[in-house]
Here is the input.
Amino acid sequence: MAAPNRTAPNRAGRSSLLLSPNSVLANALLRTIDVLRPRVHAARPARIEFVVGTQINGAPHLGTNLVQTAAFLIAKTARREFSIDTVVRFGALDNAPHEVVLDPETHHAYQQSYYHALGKDQVAALIDTYYSEFFNSLSEATDTDYAVETYTDQQATPGFRAEFLRTLDRLENLRWWMAPSHGTVHIRIPCPECGWAEKRADRTKVARLDEDGATFTAVCLDHGTYETHIDPEDDQPYLDLATLYRNLVKERAFGRDGDTLHVMMKGGDWAFGCQLVDGALGALATPAAQMPTRIFTPQVLAPTGAKLSKSLLREQGKGALPPDVEPWMLDTTAWPDGTDNYVDALVWLVGELLTDPKHFFRSFTVKELGRLMTARPTEPAVRAHEMGIYKRYFDLIATGRKTTEIRVNDSSRKKIKEGSLIRFRCQGDQVLTRVTRIVRYTSFDEMFDHESVTSVNPLATRYEQLANIRQIYPPEREALGVLAIGIELVDPPRKTPAVSGW
Ligand SMILES: [Zn+2]
Here is the structure.
């Protein structure tokens, strides 16, 4: 039976590994996950989606994988902490420029996106190459489901288009937030004939706004002037927005979903950029309840203190590679020991950062991350589903007297099968078990009609057990369905200190 994870992290004894000064945000939080609590209390969402957007134009570097790992780990912690189902939504930015050319006469820059250059199938293959194995491994390690959505899919949705059209009504108020230096927002609507678009949208104009949508005129370098119409009901033409504008429209569209709380997971450098997005959200009179929720993750810094950047190194050559940067930090496919090993190392690292908000809401140099990684446990952890549990049930499991565990059937349970391992955790202790069988029921009553009451708990009657279970799980959780999980101790039974307590 699930124990709410209410114990504060054990900060004593961890100081030898990480030392972080206090900060304004860390000072306001007992635990990292608390950063979400005000929003969860205010919105009472049915589920939480952790949204992480990533460029697909090359192998990921450590900074990218760190944000993604944080998304999966915080999703896992939030599910346990708030008893709300959580998933990760991975946004693949296939609108990144694949090629840029200059109009030889006017010198206007034109660009072609990854989607337009490669097409849907090749974009999917790129995502598969860089991320599928990594995400599947992370998903397994954290019992958290994920979905992949490309920018191309997203811009075609009625919600995204409707929000975009709403911004056009207030374009005069918005444009200085979205383009503070010149006031020209970058709305790119590629030429319907060739797919190329004006990079800075200097000659892309709103011709008309009406109840059906918006009509634009634009100029192609090969095909001259063209007119297109954006209508929320239609997924054509393609709508490519510059980074800040895309985030504004995306966050506004997510804000309208009353059932799902969307949490934007962003690298720490976004904290600066979001000031402008927030100005634009204000200019659109966005209601407080629809303002975006964001978590900024630790930045990975070169020795100079600048963000670790592949493009900077590409421009400057490998000679500019700082001595502390290991090859896998720039291209994580260079990790020597395979994906699961890499993911386990990252899960351990980010888990350590999450133990204290002082460690999580800060930046790390590559040298410090390298030092931490060498301090990780040498014996790889046995991969297992993890469950927190009350002491009285933990002791029954550890002594082999409780052989049926009861849970509600939320998304994190989908992957549990006969033969899976489950690690039960309680107050710093853990015990490893193997699943012998798994049966699904519609309610706790139905479950007790079929399961042995003493195998669930040898010390209480059916009536007492039902009362206890219903104190833990409210009716809306029971409505997800009930799992009876047969368990046996894995030999030799190990009762060792837990690796991390967050
Ligand atoms: Zn064209």
About this structure: The two ends are 19 Å apart (CA to CA). The chain has three domains: 33-300, 301-349+365-374, 385-497.
